[in-house]
Design a protein that fits this description.
Largest interface: A-D, 38 and 38 residues
Largest sheet of chain A: 8 strands, parallel, barrel
Subcellular location (chains A, B, C, D): Cytoplasm
Structural class of chain A: alpha/beta
CATH superfamily of chain A: Aldolase class I
Radius of gyration of chain A: 17 Å
Oligomer: homotetramer
Number of domains of chain A: 1
Strand order of the largest sheet of chain A: 3-4-5-6-7-8-11-14
Strand content of chain A: 15-25%
Pfam families (chains A, B, C, D): DAHP_synth_1
Helix content of chain A: 25-40%
Shape of chain A: globular
CATH architecture of chain A: Alpha-Beta Barrel
EC number (chains A, B, C, D): 2.5.1.55
Family (chains A, B, C, D): Belongs to the KdsA family.
Number of helices of chain A: 8
Catalytic activity (chains A, B, C, D): D-arabinose 5-phosphate + phosphoenolpyruvate + H2O = 3-deoxy-alpha-D-manno-2-octulosonate-8-phosphate + phosphate
Number of strands of chain A: 15
CATH topology of chain A: TIM Barrel
Distance between the termini of chain A: 25 Å
CATH class of chain A: Alpha Beta
Mean pLDDT of chain A: 95
Amino acid sequence: MKLCGYEVGEQQPFFLISGPCVVESEKLTMEIAESLKEMTDRLGIPYIFKASYDKANRSSHDSYRGPGIAEGLRILEKVRTEIGVPVLTDIHEDSPLDEVAAVADVLQTPAFLCRQTNFIQSIAKLGRPVNIKKGQFLAPWDMGNVVNKAKATGNQDIMVCERGYTFGYNNLVSDMRGLATMRDTGCPVVFDATHSVQLPGGQGNASGGERQHVPVLARAAVAAGVSGLFMESHPNPAEALSDGPNSWPVHRMEELLKILMDIDNAVKANPYLESTL
Amino acid sequence: MKLCGYEVGEQQPFFLISGPCVVESEKLTMEIAESLKEMTDRLGIPYIFKASYDKANRSSHDSYRGPGIAEGLRILEKVRTEIGVPVLTDIHEDSPLDEVAAVADVLQTPAFLCRQTNFIQSIAKLGRPVNIKKGQFLAPWDMGNVVNKAKATGNQDIMVCERGYTFGYNNLVSDMRGLATMRDTGCPVVFDATHSVQLPGGQGNASGGERQHVPVLARAAVAAGVSGLFMESHPNPAEALSDGPNSWPVHRMEELLKILMDIDNAVKANPYLESTL
Amino acid sequence: MKLCGYEVGEQQPFFLISGPCVVESEKLTMEIAESLKEMTDRLGIPYIFKASYDKANRSSHDSYRGPGIAEGLRILEKVRTEIGVPVLTDIHEDSPLDEVAAVADVLQTPAFLCRQTNFIQSIAKLGRPVNIKKGQFLAPWDMGNVVNKAKATGNQDIMVCERGYTFGYNNLVSDMRGLATMRDTGCPVVFDATHSVQLPGGQGNASGGERQHVPVLARAAVAAGVSGLFMESHPNPAEALSDGPNSWPVHRMEELLKILMDIDNAVKANPYLESTL
Amino acid sequence: MKLCGYEVGEQQPFFLISGPCVVESEKLTMEIAESLKEMTDRLGIPYIFKASYDKANRSSHDSYRGPGIAEGLRILEKVRTEIGVPVLTDIHEDSPLDEVAAVADVLQTPAFLCRQTNFIQSIAKLGRPVNIKKGQFLAPWDMGNVVNKAKATGNQDIMVCERGYTFGYNNLVSDMRGLATMRDTGCPVVFDATHSVQLPGGQGNASGGERQHVPVLARAAVAAGVSGLFMESHPNPAEALSDGPNSWPVHRMEELLKILMDIDNAVKANPYLESTL
């Protein structure tokens, strides 16, 4: 499939979706986008900037949720035009859909909402590529039904994204088998390496995270075989206003990407063995 | 707390929420409500009728979703006035909130949406008692944050409901410890004994269910200690248009309720031992 | 089935297996046995004393393992003859089988060993009733194979015991559906309410436990329907040399048993609904 | 650490343990060993032959368990001397330890037995390198206690092996984070890519398996970072007498190993990012 001008798919080099969890300030947002754009240009990795403008599903109602829709979209638009990078943002049931779709090159639906038929279809109808996050409660093979609902709208540019599966309380596990299974949907499979290391609710009023496992899971997922990678990044994760514990530092991103590219090349040099049994 | 005129709580006899998963026909809906009303009157159980008018989160987009909002609410209103029983229905992000709240005595939020802050708060603001289903991905102690969000609207009539927790793929487990844990929210705890026996996605394009486990889990939950029970029921589950595999037959409901009452009486004759350690 | 002179089974009142995790001193062991014997006589509950003489599978190799075989069996024999109560102890691959079977009225096999065919069969061959603990990794329906192996030795006095199932890391869940499922083995089903509240490995060098959930799970299991209950008990759990965090205080046992008896009576007054669907 | 003459460790190229689940015939055993020896010589991969002589923990007591100890050890000895490859076999509580250790270059302990202190220590005392399989119920960080018990015997040649973790009923999940976590034991970490795709008990009287996931998990684990790989192999898995569904075909092994080597090289070219955060 064609995504923001790039050919993407299970035998293509991986693309990257990265940026801060949430828009904090215009300055910081521009800086992150610029760093990542330069880095991925250097490496030849197709890159899409990501940031949310409103986090509607924080653990606690006291948490920072973002700058709001107007300011958030203005900044995303600026990233898009001034840095020259396509942007992805997530969208919720009560988002002003057309306004968001007017700015975002790619839309992303939250994992908790993957079974809301009306919602998935109204997002798909906007005609933008959609990255559908798989619910933490949904088996990989059950994404087929979700994709069918989305594609029934006529939009064929659908991606599916793993972000960890419920594993006891306050923990997620990333089942690498699921990445291979989801290829059967015919959609590009994306692995979200930063939300997958979250410990949901693990800090009382917020979700914890284990940043040290980001490179472990990212390497494993690329080796399992994915079309794209999603990784939230921040210049200073310890001070990020959302998802800091599981964000990856911008200044450590390039060395991570290099290793991932080497793995990706090794894996995609030939067809997947599992599909030739 | 006072619920539809009944005093409910952890030391009160349990109340029952029951009815078909979805409104099928007016005639059938009235018949079920009438049977259950008579039965619970006979047994002295506080009773609330339940039915959905639109199932937005079916596994497949070909499944029956209900009669739609107008017809659905008309029938619920009829149940309310002609049978004289309070009614509960579930509500979604795109429901016409005021219309639904005008008819329903109690509102119920879907498990998948328990972390959507805006949604939970906009429902709580309607001023009706709300039964918040705990997500299949949420630890029992994390319902405290959800309740806080809801009560921050001023509405103090909040209930929390267990309906099974993600347990590997296509299966749910009901952790009885969680029922005790959720009492710490200060809200009445409800156990949903029919969705808890679902096998999500377990039938390809639909969710399966193991009806034979309904009485097992209902007995266990009442013994663990709950304020209310939720059980979907149908005169002929094999022909139900939604959730048939996990619905309980109306004609077997009375004998089940009698046993549950005996257990409930035994358990609530004294304070819970676990709170006096 | 006949167990130590008592008729036990799914429609009989529950029997109790209880005592300290491990034999600490002769004096303490006798005191516990005497207290529990008097209590269960008063309540009319068939009672079997339980203690281990050597805990071979402690988390850390520095933990107390018991007084050893000779001293342990001597004390168990004394409980048996002086208090007049049958005794159960657990047995391992390297136990002197005949020596243990000469003293113990009932043998119990550890959960981790439930799939060791040779072991299960050599224990069953001893001709004593055997309580086989289900592994924390074994589905309830897979106990059928384990029972078949045991009964193939000719010994028909086999019981199956649930003690919690692996649920993410360092946690166990008790699936009440499994108690009903295991009745299909034709064996009496026992619920272990104290090991089920363990948090395996949850304290670094030892397993943690949540004592407050013992009555919750015990009530739930009796309501689900069991033939027997297993609960480790100690006069002062905070000072127990093993499994303290999940032991139940002896002086709170009688009030717990009374509630459980009331639930048991309610549940067994009629056949299980789930078997008449 | 030095293993059968090879330097192994987290920054060394991976070694391979492979062979049939169980010794079937002498002829077949020799053929497999010869094929794998030639292949790994060609690729420069340190190789250890693996086969069991007696499977004591089959699901059903009717399953094939192997040729028995005498014949089994004779064949392993022949593999060792005639093919010139070190051999690994698994050992149980009732194995004649000295006899087995006299033949096997490496010993392996079954996952279910990882918490049996006496057993682990009596195996470690034999002085051979030991590959300790992590129980399907044990958190990765809890292997530290197991390793301490083993090393307390004086034997420092201990390896730890992941073979899947209990994930609901009849399923296992391989948590790639655990491979990184287990490096903290200081022991070489081995990933068992064939038992990890088992569906325990999933076929009623036997365990099922999903062979197509072997290359997926093997790639992912090598990318996560391991010292060694364990993969059962058979010339004709459909006719294997044990573990056929999850065995990897010998004639597809070389192409799999080549990809794994490329990934391994990419990953080990630099220190793990997760250890430099």
